[in-house]
Amino acid sequence: MYPQFFSSLTKEIELKLRSTLLNCYENFNFYRRRFKESGVAYDDLASGPPAEIMSSLPLLDGDSLPELSSESISSIGNIVDMETSSGTTGDRKKRFISQTDDLSDHRLMAEMFRFCSINQNDRVVCLDTDPAYLMISFARALDLLGVEEVYNYAVGPDFRRELAKLPPLEPTTIFTVPSLLERSLAELEEFQKGPSGSVQKIVFLGERVPNALRTRLEKEWEVEVFSYYGAAETSSLGIECTAHEGIHLFTTHNLFEVTNKPPELVVTSLKQATLPLLRYKLGDLVDHIPSECRCGSSYPRVKVNGRVGDTFTIFGSDFHYESLLQSMYRDQNEIGFMQISITRTDRDVLTIVVPEEQRVNEKFLKQSLLKEQMELDFLVASRFVDLQFLYVDQEYFQSARKMKLVTDRRPRL
């Protein structure tokens, strides 16, 4: 059975896929072993149906990356850059980038930013911490797009002093990560709600966007919020459109499929020669949105629900962070912050970490959570699970760029 790709395999896509398969065979011992184990010979890659060949290959995960990265730097020429993940939610991942891949990456980014209505009239500030390393690639792509101005703007702990120079730039668009914007929200809000407030769009990168933050920006700041989707292993993958009904995956550069359980997004690169990926599990849980988008684009859409590590099991029952979050805050005015910790004493202990301001709502949060999560309700009522709430300052959720949403500290059997 062929992989269930989100998009049809046109002749152009099949040619790109064949080129990727041949590149993998010719330059990577890792893939030659995989092909041999799957019964695929070089002649099959050169003349056989690419989709059928793909169906015989196993899925890859992050454990494959160290060997692939090492091979890429030794076998591929013109390495000009290296991209790494933060390492805060898992092992640090590295991707070495050739000059050709670098140009391809930035052209794709420019296409994506045009897709979310950024144009030559925009003045863009890429807001980062000091040193401003994360946003350099985005600034280069925005230059390719031909925006009026683009600035890399780095801030440190003194937001008020450092953001005081922002208003004269009159930005129409801000690129940043959610946690950084949250930590500088008061200073930026003072600017945005003043007479010189010019921001019309905010593009979030790198992290899940809290619903409360999105709602506040849309309703109080009256700005349009977009989520960019990418990974250190692949660079850009997709972006939210002006209809704001999911992430569009750009199938010009990658093929996408999804596993059955859990529904994890799988990518096969079509233009990434330096670190080609064949059926690589990204670790992101998604819902495929099969209907046509109101924006008119034919690019497939997904809703990104979180990381595979955000799923955990208690006595055979599967739970996912996003589902628990939505259930707990169902009857509140907005979706707030939450972190989950699972430990074990004489029974499993599920600790829900929330801001101190929610202490007065504990009874209602617990009722709402257990009302919708019937399996959890049974486990708690039967005393298989002890449900606890832990309260922390709001700053706890805003003090780092990324935090693990679910931490399972139970001993492994």
Please describe the biggest sheet, giving its number of strands, its sense, and whether it closes into a barrel: 11 strands, mixed
Q: What shape does the CA trace take?
A: globular
Radius of gyration over C-alpha positions, nearest whole angstrom: 23 Å
The count of strands amounts to 19
The helicity comes to 25-40%
Q: Which terms would index this structure?
A:
27% strand; 14 helices; 4-stranded mixed β-sheet; 11-stranded mixed β-sheet; alpha/beta; 413 residues
Please provide a written account of the structure.
The chain is an alpha/beta fold and 413 residues long. Helix content is 32%, strand content 27%. The chain is built from 14 helices and 19 strands. The protein has an 11-stranded mixed β-sheet. Helix 1 (11-27) packs across helix 2 (29-37), helix 6 (99-115) crosses helix 7 and helix 13 (362-372) crosses helix 14. It starts with 10 loop residues before the first helix and ends in a 5-residue tail after the last strand.
Write the layout of secondary structure elements.
Elements: H1 11-27, H2 29-37, H3 42-47, H4 50-55, H5 65-75, E1 79-84, E2 94-98, H6 99-115, E3 123-129, H7 136-145, E4 149-155, H8 159-163, E5 173-176, H9 178-183, H10 185-192, E6 201-204, H11 211-221, E7 224-231, E8 235-240, E9 247-249, E10 254-258, E11 264-269, E12 280-289, E13 301-307, E14 311-314, E15 317-320, H12 321-328, E16 339-344, E17 348-355, H13 362-372, H14 374-381, E18 385-392, E19 406-408
Parallel strand pairs: 3-4, 3-5, 5-6, 6-7, 16-19, 17-18
Antiparallel strand pairs: 1-2, 7-8, 8-9, 9-13, 10-11, 11-12, 12-13, 14-15, 16-17
Helix pairs in contact: 1-2, 6-7, 12-13, 13-14
